[in-house]
Amino acid sequence: MKLAFDLNRLPGPAIAGLGLISTVNTAPDTLTFVLSLAVTASGTLLTLDDVREDSLRRDARIVAHLAKTPGARTRQIGRALELRDRPVGRSLTRLVKDGLVVLETENETLPMRSYRLSD
Prior knowledge:
Helix content: 55-70%
Oligomer: single chain
Radius of gyration: 20 Å
Structural class: mainly alpha
Order of helices and strands: HHEHHEE
Largest sheet: 3 strands, antiparallel
Shape: elongated
Strand content: 5-15%
């Protein structure tokens, strides 16, 4: 599994942190306090958007993998894409719920569940 630091993800937490620092150091009855809260919320939303985008990218990679390897198990998918079982499982659950993927095996542990694309 690769761990990499992506500088494109730095602005959200940085903006939220700066807003929070400004909020703590400002009197609550000023316009600066309100603006600091807005900056904090803005940075938090930007961070959450990055997390959501990562989930969508992971979903797309899993669908592409299942297109090449029907019947793949959660652990196989994770190893092929260098992802852990839990995030793969969350993506697969979401894809099953959306009707894009079908669970082929019932009553299996998460790593052993088998999936394929829906018809």
